[in-house]
């Protein structure tokens, strides 16, 4: 072991070098030596905080995973989960497409379809109040909006690139899902407007909220056509009080009796034991006595652990894990997956759900930024029906002709979904058998989709 004084001097020299000579290497303080229980790997991982507001001490927490091979030549991909208020590390990294998933007995298991096979992946907990991200001035939490989130995310990126200058010339992509259907276009638009020089090449949105009425009302047909609600309930749910009306009334605190009755009817018929985010997947029945609720879906080899969310929560709440991640809990007693829900650190302005972002996609396409919208086709929360019609409508509005007609796409000799491309720049795809969190239930197909998207290729047409 080195003497303490020597380590201290070495640290001072490193700090001085970074201050006066400019940053020439990645920030060593944020480098993860190893995560508790992780298998040995050859790539590097970093995590820590980037301050986005110096005065109010607001800082966003990130986890950065370098590509398994050749990181310098691979693109940089930012991943954002939605909510609003949910964590990209607890969900995106640990449940969907990070290098490891939490397994039994406190070990991390290698994910063979992790996105860092194709890219350097940056997971960001945003806005402040989500996960390990915080604002020391708690008045920030009173009302957080889309506008604030986009602005903080932009500042985060500017400062992150200063810390990681090696990545400033790589192709840059922004990806995410669900409410990130707001975050991603809004951030991309800000990048374009401020002429931030990030090499932004494209964005990909999974089961995104893009237009309140179209997205939410596609739920009725989805539930009905999958046999989850009856003909008569479908009729009421479309004719008497539709889902966007129900949600709008909930947001404004004036849910009418007739709408409430239909809402209850729908959810009684669907049953509590259905995962709304994947209507074909089993639910995690017990998070206490971890029985093996493992589902064989479609392929024998593909096992899905439906209790992985709970494992991610306990993993990220371990002190040794937090230390290894350079994370701290500021103003909260525990890490939670979504902080605008039950624990309510953060009050997100839910009226923002009604802001349409589909038109922003149009202006991004106009700025030559590649846009992909994809849908896990078993999701009833933001079903494929709404997303597909929104993209189709946008293409018409922009006058983009179909360049790849609606067809099946393939992965490992099976149909992995359907796709259509407009003007070689705007595309839509489904992922067959996938949930709202597509890479969770269809990791292999999702990785195939990412790979084609990053390369700017249409999805593979035949086995
Ligand atoms: C906290 O933020 C609020 C709103 O931005 C501001 O008015 C207030 O002065 C800040 N408090 C401190 C202690 O800086
Ligand atoms: C949903 O209900 C509202 C209010 O009744 C109505 O304006 C809207 O057109 C309906 N949308 C659909 C898709 O039925
Ligand atoms: C519910 O509240 C919103 C916003 O305050 C208002 O615009 C709307 O008219 C109200 N609806 C009903 C049915 O009272
Ligand atoms: C895209 O560009 C076209 C042609 O310049 C313009 O007419 C249209 O309004 C633009 N659309 C958006 C959504 O910015
Ligand atoms: C789109 O298709 C129409 C009809 O085939 C054609 O007239 C038009 O030139 C095409 N537009 C582009 C941009 O290729």
Compact description:
This protein is of the alpha/beta class and 463 residues long.
Folded structure, characterized:
Residues 1-25 form the signal peptide. One of its GO terms (molecular function) is serine-type carboxypeptidase activity. InterPro entries: AB_hydrolase_fold, Peptidase_S10, Ser_caboxypep_his_AS, Ser_caboxypep_ser_AS. It comes from Mucuna pruriens. Probable carboxypeptidase. The protein is 35% helix and 19% strand. The protein has 463 residues and is an alpha/beta fold. The strands form 3 sheets. Strands 1, 2, 3, 6, 7, 8, 9, 12, 13, 14 and 15 form an 11-stranded mixed sheet that branches. Strands 4-5 form a two-stranded antiparallel ribbon. The chain contains 14 helices and 15 strands. The protein has helices spanning 4-21, 88-97, 146-163, 180-193, 212-225, 231-239, 243-251, 257-270, 308-316, 319-325, 358-366, 384-398, 438-441, 443-455, and strands spanning 45-53, 58-65, 76-80, 100-102, 108-110, 120-125, 134-135, 172-177, 200-206, 294-296, 303-305, 370-376, 402-411, 414-422, 426-431. Strand 10 and strand 11 (303-305) form a beta hairpin. The chain has a domain at 45-211 and 349-455: Rossmann fold (3-Layer(aba) Sandwich), CATH 3.40.50. It binds 2-acetamido-2-deoxy-beta-D-glucopyranose (5 copies). The site of one 2-acetamido-2-deoxy-beta-D-glucopyranose has 3 residues, from loops.
Strand content: 15-25%
Distance N to C terminus: 56 Å
Low-pLDDT windows of residues: 1-24, 286-302
Structural Rg: 22 Å
Characterize the largest beta sheet: strand count, sense, and whether it forms a barrel: 11 strands, mixed
The CATH topology of the domain at 45-211 and 349-455 turns out to be Rossmann fold
CATH class wording of the domain at 45-211 and 349-455: Alpha Beta
Bound molecules: 2-acetamido-2-deoxy-beta-D-glucopyranose
Described by the principal axes of the CA atoms, the overall outline is globular
Q: Roughly how much helix do the residues carry, as a percent range?
A: 25-40%
Q: What is the CATH homology-level superfamily of the domain at 45-211 and 349-455?
A: Alpha/Beta hydrolase fold, catalytic domain
């Amino acid at each position: 072991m080195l003497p303490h004084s020597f380590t201290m001097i070495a640290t001072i020299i490193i700090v001085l070098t970074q201050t006066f000579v400019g940053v020439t290497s990645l920030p060593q303080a944020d480098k993860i030596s190893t995560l508790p229980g992780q298998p040995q790997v050859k790539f590097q991982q970093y995590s820590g905080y980037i301050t986005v507001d110096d005065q109010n001490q607001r800082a966003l927490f990130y986890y950065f995973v370098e590509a398994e091979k050749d990181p310098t030549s691979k693109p940089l991909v930012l991943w954002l989960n939605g909510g609003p208020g949910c964590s990209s590390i607890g969900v995106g990294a640990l449940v969907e497409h990070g290098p490891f998933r939490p397994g039994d007995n406190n070990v991390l298991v290698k994910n063979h379809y992790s996105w860092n096979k194709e890219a350097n992946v940056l997971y960001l907990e945003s806005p402040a109040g989500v996960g390990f991200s915080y604002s020391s001035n708690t008045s920030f939490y009173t009302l957080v909006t889309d506008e604030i989130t986009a602005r903080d995310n932009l500042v985060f990126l500017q400062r992150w690139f200063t810390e990681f200058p090696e990545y400033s010339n790589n192709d840059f992509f922004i990806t995410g899902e669900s409410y990130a259907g707001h975050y991603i276009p809004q951030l991309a638009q800000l990048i374009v407007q401020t002429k931030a020089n990030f090499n932004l090449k494209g964005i990909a949105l999974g089961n995104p909220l893009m237009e309140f009425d179209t997205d939410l009302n596609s739920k009725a047909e989805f539930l009905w056509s999958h046999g989850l609600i009856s003909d008569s309930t479908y009729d009421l749910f479309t004719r008497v009080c539709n889902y966007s009306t129900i949600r709008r009334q909930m947001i404004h605190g004036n849910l009418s009796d007739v709408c409430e009755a239909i809402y209850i009817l729908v959810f009684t018929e669907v049953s509590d034991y259905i995962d709304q985010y994947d209507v074909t997947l089993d639910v995690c029945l017990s998070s206490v006595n971890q029985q093996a609720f493992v589902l064989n879906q479609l392929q024998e080899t593909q096992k899905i652990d439906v209790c992985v969310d709970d494992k991610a929560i306990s993993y990220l709440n371990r002190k040794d894990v937090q230390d290894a991640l350079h994370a701290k809990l500021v103003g909260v007693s525990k890490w939670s997956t979504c902080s605008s829900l039950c624990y309510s650190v953060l009050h997100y302005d839910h009226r923002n759900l009604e802001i349409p972002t589909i038109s922003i996609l149009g202006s991004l396409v106009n700025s030559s930024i590649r846009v992909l919208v994809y849908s896990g086709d078993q999701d009833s929360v933001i079903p494929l029906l709404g997303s597909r019609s929104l993209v189709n409508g946008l293409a018409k509005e922009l006058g983009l002709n179909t360049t790849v007609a609606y067809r099946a796409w393939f992965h490992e000799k099976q149909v992995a979904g359907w796709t259509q491309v407009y003007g070689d720049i705007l595309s839509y795809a489904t992922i067959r058998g996938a949930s709202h969190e597509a890479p969770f239930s269809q990791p292999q197909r999702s990785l195939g989709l990412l790979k084609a998207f990053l390369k700017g290729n249409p999805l593979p047409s035949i086995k």
